[in-house]
């Protein structure tokens, strides 16, 4: 979660109030990935987030051409802008920013060179994820490309990754490169299974994470994440 407003940041029409939380990982945009299915589900999530003290979210739809070929930085930005207007039309004060959850896959560097890098809220930060049974050879070159071009990679929920063999050593390696790590709050309560529950507690104790995020998908699981 990010501090929504640094002390020297001027307040603008798009700047949320200083008192509140911002979630950096969510799937609130309806109908474009495996997150909220409808605008009503999105509104339900936003109401719950507001009640819990959140003032905004960075929308991070899956960016993975194999499963969601329509999701590019440009289409995501347009969808988030549309959703922001829909909230405003209903009098819901909640700030959204565009981003993406970039799957690291073979050929990802070629893809982002062609389509752009889905950065978080116009920053240089890039949320990434992996979902392979074994740690792929193309992960380190992808992180090296991002870092070499001035981006800050963030690896989402490493405690959930299926490639658990030598995972601690792999995370040490990417951390030394400069990659940041983001934990998923839901892993703290065991709903993601035994190993994620154990790993997130271990990694928290080892002070590995830079962020804790909700990874909101749909209303039924949001309360437990909160």
Instruction: Determine the fraction of residues in helical runs and give it as a percent range.
Output: 25-40%
Mean pLDDT value: 92
Structural class label = alpha/beta
The whole-angstrom Rg is 17 Å
Overall geometric form: globular
Q: Strand fraction band? A: 15-25%
The tally of beta strands, per DSSP, is 9
Per DSSP, the total helix count is 7
The rounded distance between the terminal residues' Cα atoms is 12 Å
User: Any low-confidence stretches, pLDDT <50, length ≥5?
Assistant: 2-14
**What pattern of helices and strands is seen along the backbone?**
EHEEHEEHEHEHEHEH
Please give the order of strands in the largest beta sheet. 3-5-6-7-8-9
Q: Describe the biggest sheet?
A: 6 strands, parallel
Detail the topology: elements first, then pairings.
Layout: E1 21-26, H1 39-51, E2 54-59, E3 62-63, H2 73-89, E4 95-98, E5 101-103, H3 108-115, E6 125-129, H4 139-148, E7 152-156, H5 167-177, E8 180-184, H6 194-205, E9 211-213, H7 219-225
Parallel strand pairs: 1-2, 2-4, 3-5, 5-6, 6-7, 7-8, 8-9
Brief overview, please?
By secondary structure, the protein is of the alpha/beta class. It has seven helices and nine strands; from the N terminus they run βαββαββαβαβαβαβα.
Question: Could you explain the architecture of this structure?
Answer:
- The chain is of the alpha/beta class.
- 35% of the residues lie in helices and 17% in strands.
- The chain contains 7 helices and 9 strands, in the order βαββαββαβαβαβαβα.
- A 6-stranded parallel beta sheet has the order 3-5-6-7-8-9. The protein has a 3-stranded parallel beta sheet with strand order 1-2-4.
- β7 (152-156), α5 and β8 form a beta-alpha-beta unit.
- Mean pLDDT is 92; it is low at 2-14.
